[in-house]
């Protein structure tokens, strides 16, 4: 037994999970694991190889040959695929629009869940995703389920894309988020669902500092 603490943050796309989790981890001096970035890194690897992302066999073969790692840098945590910094590339629209399908396969999820749990073995951790409280860390000390309106999430994604030089129209982003919500919540393997013991936090109308404070209050 260890005294390591586990905080699980789940929720739909662009609810603010990763941003909040990063801030909490830094403030608490915990490890941060961005599980969504792991699925995105696999998706990027598959797209680069022109693989069939609807093929579980092809995806598991690719996954067996790649290493996904994280490193804290001056400007935040970076994501590495076989040693290459892909922090920006995994956020491109073609990756975003394919990652839900890639993450829907049982064998893909089983392998990445195994890797995610290894991260939590070494130290206290904040982990965000869509099945952290239900599958990856079912015994987490605190489980949060972040939500926000579709309009607000689309605006957040639009602002983030604009900052990164991606000019996808707002209406297109809104439709993509709606479609992903449906896909993620109805998929067969580890669907997006609030754990019975998770606390619902609605981030609509709140800034990041306010959301972080809400969760910090729940930790005390």
UniProtKB/TrEMBL annotation:
Chief place where the protein resides: cytoplasm
Assigned keywords, A-Z: ATP-binding, Cytoplasm, Kinase, Nucleotide-binding, Transferase
Pfam families per UniProt: Cytidylate_kin (PF02224)
Enzyme superclass (EC): transferase
EC number: 2.7.4.25
Record: residues binding ATP: 11-19
Localization terms from the record: Cytoplasm
Gene3D superfamilies: P-loop containing nucleotide triphosphate hydrolases
CDD domains, per database record: CMPK (cd02020)
Gene Ontology terms for molecular function: ATP binding; CMP kinase activity; dCMP kinase activity
The keyword Ion transport appears for this protein: no
One GO process term, biological-process aspect: pyrimidine nucleotide metabolic process
Catalytic activity: dCMP + ATP = dCDP + ADP; CMP + ATP = CDP + ADP
A cellular component term, taken from the record's GO annotations: cytosol
Leader sequence residues: none
Domain Cytidylate kinase as annotated: residue spans: 7-218
Similarity comment: Belongs to the cytidylate kinase family. Type 1 subfamily.
Family matches, as PANTHER family: CYTIDYLATE KINASE, CYTIDYLATE KINASE/PANTOATE-BETA-ALANINE LIGASE
NCBIfam families named among the record's database cross-references: cmk
Record-given protein name: Cytidylate kinase
Organism per entry: Vagococcus silagei
């Amino acid at each position: 037994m260890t005294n390591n603490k586990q905080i699980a943050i789940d929720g739909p796309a662009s609810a603010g999970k990763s941003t909040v989790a990063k801030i909490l981890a830094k403030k608490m001096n915990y490890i941060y694991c961005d599980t969504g970035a792991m699925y995105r890194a696999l998706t990027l690897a598959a797209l680069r190889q022109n693989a069939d992302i609807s093929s579980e066999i092809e995806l598991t073969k690719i996954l067996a040959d790649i290493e996904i790692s994280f490193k804290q840098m001056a400007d935040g945590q970076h994501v590495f695929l076989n040693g290459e910094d892909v922090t920006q590339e995994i956020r491109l629209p073609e990756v975003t629009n394919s990652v839900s399908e890639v993450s829907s396969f049982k064998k893909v999820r089983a392998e990445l869940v195994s890797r995610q749990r290894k991260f939590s073995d070494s130290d206290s951790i904040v982990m965000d995703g869509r099945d952290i409280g239900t599958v990856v860390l079912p015994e987490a000390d605190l489980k949060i389920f972040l939500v926000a309106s579709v309009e607000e999430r689309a605006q957040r994604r639009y602002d983030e894309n604009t900052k990164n030089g991606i000019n996808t129209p707002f209406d297109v982003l809104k439709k993509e988020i709606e479609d992903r919500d449906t896909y993620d919540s109805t998929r067969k393997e580890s669907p997006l669902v609030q754990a019975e013991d998770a606390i619902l936090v609605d981030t609509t109308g709140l800034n990041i500092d306010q959301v972080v404070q809400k969760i910090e209050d729940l930790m005390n």
